[in-house]
Amino acid sequence: MKELRYNQAISEALDEEMARDPSVFIMGEDIGEHWGGPFGQFHGLAEKYGTKRIRETPISETAILGGAIGAAATGLRPIAAMMFVDFLGVSGDELLNQLQMRYMFGGKIKLPLTIIAVTGAGAAAAAQHSKSLYGWLMNIQSLKIVAPATPYDAKGLLKTAIRDDNPVAFLTHKMLGGMKGQIPEEEYTIPLGQADTKREGKDVTVVALALMVHRALNAAKKLEEQGISIEVIDPRTVKPLDKETIIQSVKKTGRLVIMDEEPKTGSWAGEVAAIIAEEAFDYLDAPIKRVCAPDTPIPFSPVLEKFWMPSEEALIKAVLEIKKPKA
Amino acid sequence: MHIEKEKLIEMYRTMVRIREFEERVSKEFAAGNIPGFVHIYTGEEAVATGVCANLRKDDYITSTHRGHGHLIAKGGRTDLMMAELYGRRTGYCRGKGGSMHIADTELGILGANGIVGGGINIAGGAALSAQMRGTNQAVVCFLGDGASNRGTFHEGVNMAACWNLPVVYVIENNLYAEKTRITDTARVTNLADRATAYGIPDVTVDGNDVTAVYEAIHEAISRARQGKGPTLVECKTYRWHGHFEGDRQTYKPKEEAEAWKKKDPVPAFRKKLIETGVFTQADAERIHQMIADEIENAVKFARESPLPAPEETLEDVYA
Q1: What are residue B48's phi and psi, to 5 degrees?
Q2: Residue A326: is its pLDDT beyond 80?
Q3: Which end of chain B is more exposed for a tag (fewer CB within 10 A), N or C?
Q4: Which DSSP string corresponds to B258-301?
Q5: What CA–CA distance (Å, rounded) separates B248 from A37?
Q6: DSSP for residue A27
């Protein structure tokens, strides 16, 4: 085993996949030798693979994503580096409409492309550089969505995303970039659509993604002191969603809280809640709770942003509303 | 420039095939046999034909919402196209795409497109792919005058210019973006002048003269294959039908439409081929009969084809 930071694990996955498959290349803004992307995920790759495969583009998001689609449709395996997930809005048509080529063409084409983008609040980056967009993106048919919470998951899932023959949005959280974790020396991949139970428990199931997984784990430790045992499930991929693991957990605990770093309305949390209400209602002993952000754009000032983000305290409060502590 | 006799005849056949297909689609649509909506290419046949006559089978095109002519010119089969318009399982897209999403990747057709300007960056990506794979393939991106006002046009052409991508942008200026005159939405007389902003060559050509189009594109494709980058070609032409079938076209002056109909590219080319001894009137008539039979069979094929099973809706989402 070796220790790597989250963003280093991403770089290592990119490096390994580029070495493995010459049809893999990356196109995006400022990913070359002078910056390596705003979070350093592409650091060192231009030196190793050259500017033909690490292609710095103009500030032209529609050309990046549209170009990746055209390249994927004609035999290459592009990675579109979109910088912040918020910028996917700039390439809205490509994301919403052009990505659905395979279906529109009656299955005659494969679109093996990966979109890499950074998500998340917590860096005082305000409304246009802090979104998560899980709920928004999951409504786009033909797109798979990955949101890893640890360096291990990031590396294994990115390798799978690149090898997938469909468009995959690989969303990394900006506040996790420096997080350290153990990575095996040998190669490994993690399948999409397979949740990871980050902590086992028996009283309440908490489902969370990315940064929220860590807040849930911290909250779980505090709740343990009050005699409440929390199971933390990290789906790791928003789509396809491993609903079976969540349902099995709810069958065991009878209680579900979803923690999601998005405005509550139209969120991914709403979809998870609906699935459990539809498919596991009989196992529930309490109402499903959602711990989400308020329905506002993301504010700048750290004091406002802290208020906006779903917190450990908010999660603890939600858990205590459906599960009384042991006296 | 000399164009082989066989090629000229083939070009004529293509123009007639497009005309007959489109006029038949118009009739079938009016009769209620085709669901959704269709955009007819009649009047612009010389563009698609003159352009695609320069392309190899493995070259790529991206098309538009008014795409039937491009697809036919690139070798698309009229029976599979008609079946798709009819929403049949035997259609090019198994009934999942319809008029605006017909594609044939075996022929390098990367799809018609329902979004104006939606194909511009896809063409750039295909050109990048051809360049990176070193295949010497070229890409033609068809777009309308309206699409040249999209942001995707700026982003796509600029990036392709920066990277010397093997792509030719063909603006079919038919004077109207949907129902709005291009002169109301652009201050340049020649849309190809916009090439200057990207540091690439521009060509403006009579889009109703198929050999003029062929020659302009020949030069542009040859630049593309030599690694010299993109060219912006504007073909000036006219849309005979409305934006969509059923459009009452109140925005078109009558004299304008009549003047353009006198410049009909199909009989003009026929006349030229007869006068230069490439073929005879009888040869031309034989071609018309052959195409008429082909289109009749295409409609028959479409009508007799099975509809998709409803649950096929769930297939083809993921590879």
Answers
A1: -55, -40
A2: no
A3: N
A4: HHHHTT-HHHHHHHHHHHTTSS-HHHHHHHHHHHHHHHHHHHHH
A5: 52
A6: E
Contact call for residues A167 and A111 (beta carbons, < 8 A)? yes
Contact B159 A67 (CB under 8 A): yes
Residue A327 lies in a domain: no
Cβ distance of B152 and A63 shorter than 8 Å? yes
Contacts of A98 in chain B (CB under 8 A): 113, 115, 118, 121-122
CA distance B130 to chain A (A): 8
Residues A153, A144: Cα–Cα separation, whole Å: 16
Separation of alpha carbons A239 and A90, rounded Å: 22
Residues 7-66 of A with CB under 8 A from B: 25, 52, 55, 57-58, 60-63, 65-66
Query: CA-CA-CA-CA torsion for A293, A298, A301, A305, nearest 10 degrees?
Result: 20
**Is there a contact between A70 and B123 if contact means CB atoms under 8 Å apart?**
yes
Same domain flag for A29 and A89: yes
Are B101 and A74 within 8 A, CB to CB?
no
Instruction: Read off the pLDDT of residues B163-208 as tens digits, 9 standing for 90 and up.
Output: 999 999 999 999 999 999 999 999 999 999 999 999 999 999 999 9
Pairwise CA distance, residues B319 & B315, whole Å: 10
Which chain A positions have a beta carbon within 8 Å of B88's beta carbon? none
Nearest to B129 among A58, A76, A141 (CB): A76
Number of neighbours of residue A265 by Cβ within 10 angstroms? 10
Contact between A33 and A212 under an 8 Å Cβ cutoff? The reply is no
Q: Do residue A109 and residue B317 have CB atoms under 8 angstroms apart?
A: no
Same domain, A154 and A206: no
Q: Both A154 and A282 in a single domain?
A: no
- A76 lies within 8 A of chain B by CB: yes
Average pLDDT along chain B? 97
Name the residue among B106, B55, B50, B51 with its Cα closest to residue B77.
Answer: B106
User: Catalytic site residue A129?
Assistant: yes
Last residue of one domain, picked from the residues A146, A162, A183: A183
Minimal-distance CA residue of chain A relative to B100: A104
> Residues A118-160: pLDDT tens digits?
999 999 999 999 999 999 999 999 999 999 999 999 999 999 9
Which domain does A239 fall in, by range? 196-322
Measured distance CA(A232)–CA(A259) in Å, rounded: 10
Same domain, A112 and A245: no
State whether A68 and B125 contact (CB < 8 Å): yes
Give the bridge partners for A118, in sequence order.
Answer: A84, A172
Work out the minimum CA distance from A247 to partner chain B, whole angstroms. Answer: 24
Contacts of A112 in chain B (CB under 8 A): 319
